[in-house]
């Protein structure tokens, strides 16, 4: 492992601490009795407190120093006087340990008493310092010049997501998003529990990936020697519990879909699903409005939320529009009574990419997604979906071509999906068989037939309404966050590039940096010009990179292309 100069120095300090008989990673409890926030809220002159956290700054001024300690709730200023810290003739704790061996980022425990400085700063006068954990890598502290310009701030999104632990240390304001996320889950749980519904758990490993149209992740169970799938939805298991006699069940479900990643999609995501017996989708719309109004108030203390340039109101009631009317409004095309081929031709005429594997439902979904979805900024229920789009939904009571389903749109994105649940086992079998036909046509997102779920329905499921809410998207709207990666502690990332096993020269670093800025590819002569290297330096650097398998050269038509492989 190659270490930087700073990392080498910190390891040398580690050794010196051990020579002084100090354990840099002590096992015993440290008796913290206050946080920085509690100190400020209950401040009393002369009060004795014990705190712990990271040392985040230090201004050493001979026999006295000021520093800042950061804990989970903020920062508190420290005042360290050599003679108060070391009242005997032995000044090692101040002169050697604090000034020379403790680094920024180290975890320390502080015992002391509170006072107010001459400029009014609430400060902790340090009486004792205990090293709790020695940090071996320096934190990326931002620097500010005399003109107020900031440098070296830890703002690169890929680094922040990959090293969230560093992001939370040096950008503590980002914690607010995750605190609000936790408040959202708590608010939703409280709302359901007060309504008398029960939180449950269902399998993540499933023999049939049911409950949604999506491409699953596949794995293998060695002991049973069978394929298994990571859950794409928990719907069919929750309905089994309604069959079993529960009136209302809900679950915060980690779901997994083997699909693309972008600013609103992650392959692992969280959905809340709730099923309530003896209800329909009209009742569920009213319930959803009240639920989201309650959650917005608990998270932000207001029913209004800012998202980008929009102010969203979560105040009930929400607007309601049928899917047929929405498509007619924004395209002029009426899907009522149209055949699959008529809808496919209409989609093509609208400039929407379609193919022969798409059935009627998917074609309608493509039209709505391309032409209608983005127009709904304020929370809006899109209702009464065509039957082909909703294989688990009860047929509409007034129109047999439609289903009793709604989706909630906010800022052009689906946040919730709900049905009057299909509880006719014969109808459900026919819908599954239609999905099987789509799969045979090449639709790799068509649903599987779940024979056990059909058997459960044959034992009888009462009239039921179900609701699913994308929790990640909802918290994005409540925190004005445009990327799903910002609301996930540890979003899925591409594998980290392995650092080269040898020291790159400055010329080699220049070539690689230019390749990285150009998506790891360059026409070789153009790259050579951009480097401004002499012929001799260019040849030497290119040969070295190729010999270490970091680059390769290939021919594309008339051009030679150099590619970065790391």
TrEMBL record:
CDD domains: LysRS_core, LysRS_N. PROSITE patterns: AA_TRNA_LIGASE_II. Keywords: Aminoacyl-tRNA synthetase, ATP-binding, Cytoplasm, Ligase, Magnesium, Metal-binding, Nucleotide-binding, Protein biosynthesis. Its main location: cytoplasm. It is found in: Cytoplasm. Residues 181-495 form the Aminoacyl-transfer RNA synthetases class-II family profile domain. It catalyses: tRNA(Lys) + L-lysine + ATP = L-lysyl-tRNA(Lys) + AMP + diphosphate. Mg(2+) 1 binds at residues 407, 414. Mg(2+) 2 binds at residue 414. GO terms for molecular function: lysine-tRNA ligase activity. Homodimer. PANTHER family: LYSINE--TRNA LIGASE, CHLOROPLASTIC_MITOCHONDRIAL (PTHR42918:SF15), LYSYL-TRNA SYNTHETASE (PTHR42918). This is Lysine--tRNA ligase. It comes from Paenimyroides ceti.
